[in-house]
Fold:
Amino acid sequence: MEKQSWAERNPDKIALHKRKYYENNREESKLRSRKQNLKGKIAYSMLSNSDKKKCDKEVEKLLTSDI
Structure:
């Protein structure tokens, strides 16, 4: 039997903690999210065309597997 981490056993507490953190640090959270978004855009723009196609396929695969 595989040992579960505390986070796997308590997803509701993790969600509550994230929500509280976001509410208390709203501007910081928005800035961090925006930074991550821009880093992704810049990294994507640096890829070659063939790598962009591979990346797009992988993203589509990940998005469809979550549904």
